[in-house]
Amino acid sequence: MLKLLITACCFLFVACQMPPTASHSHLSQYQIDPAQLPPDASEVLQALDQLIAQVIQSVEPKVAELKKDHIAQLQKLQEKYTKLGKLDEAVAIRDAVRQLSHERPLRNDILPDLGNLSQHRGSTGSVLYFDVVGSTEGSVWGTDIYTADSRLAAVAVHAGVLRIGMRGVVKVTILPSQSLYRGSMRHGVTSSDYNSYPGSYKVTKP
Known about the structure:
The chain is α+β, with helices and mostly antiparallel strands and 206 residues long. The chain contains four helices and ten strands; from the N terminus they run αααββββαββββββ. 39% of the residues lie in helices and 20% in strands. A hairpin with a 2-residue loop joins strand 7 and strand 8. Helix 2 (39-83) runs antiparallel to helix 3 (87-101).
């Protein structure tokens, strides 16, 4: 029951990242470029984009209400597990409450985890958002600034943005090549040293 409730709340948290703003196309998460399509096909996609934005805007009040109700339920459970002396469970619930309570700019340009950022090398300065589950698996090179081929899920944990097994949206900034990457041990993830590599990135909270 506890796992189901926390999972539902985390789903709501991710869902409410999707904004109705026109500045970020909903189609961006599908990596569709309307400019590459014939004008009539582009119009169809733009109409879809506008309709999706309207739907998202219409459900925002309901999402906020659902978040509030589930946060209250989680807080009661947190108190319960604290009184029982089950501190690990209480801390896990507290973290879920903090994630749900933290207001952020709503987004609809969140991308799925691509594994690493190799395909974005050369896009220095670009800022991307990914839906990631923290993991210890995969190779990582660097500390704070990582090689483009470092595993994103493990980097998110190493950088302290996500905990192992925790799902969340992370902000990735594409950086230029570095002459040296220093490895370290952080949060259960060990990264390695590496010499000059063409392309790097850093991960922070949105």
